[in-house]
Design goal:
Helix content is about 30%, strand content about 20%. By secondary structure, it is of the alpha/beta class.
Length: about 120
């Protein structure tokens, strides 16, 4: 039995633990943008080295602002960083703080989960 998913909105969760300049991180950011363009609801959960991706002054924060901003394709992504990391205090506007409980809830609610770890 095949299921037609054309036009269906999926809940996509991308969990990133790699550094801001890591190639896998850049690929994950591109996947998030492509999923938004498709009409999917995208949430990114960043932990470890990835909390720097959305930090003020980090070169990749421009991408985060683009995913969170009014110009994001087909709606905004949600960006959550692990509050246990001390580097979370300088995030760009729109980034939310979360914890392991939030991550577990997001995993249960998502239709697709992609993990990017070091």
């Amino acid at each position: 039995m095949s299921v037609d998913v054309e036009g269906a909105t999926r809940r996509v969760l991308i969990v990133i633990g790699t550094a801001a300049t890591d190639g896998a991180t850049i690929a994950a950011l591109r996947l998030a943008e492509a999923a938004l363009r498709r009409g999917d609801a995208v949430t990114v959960y960043a932990y470890g080295g990835a909390v720097r991706i959305g930090a003020d002054g980090c070169p990749t924060s421009v991408y985060v602002q683009g995913l969170l901003g009014a110009d994001a394709p087909n709606g905004r992504a949600a960006w959550i960083v692990d509050r246990c990391d001390p580097r979370t205090s300088t995030q760009v506007s729109g980034v939310r703080l979360g914890d392991g409980g939030d991550l577990w809830r997001l995993i249960r609610e998502a239709d697709v989960v992609l993990g990017v770890s070091p």
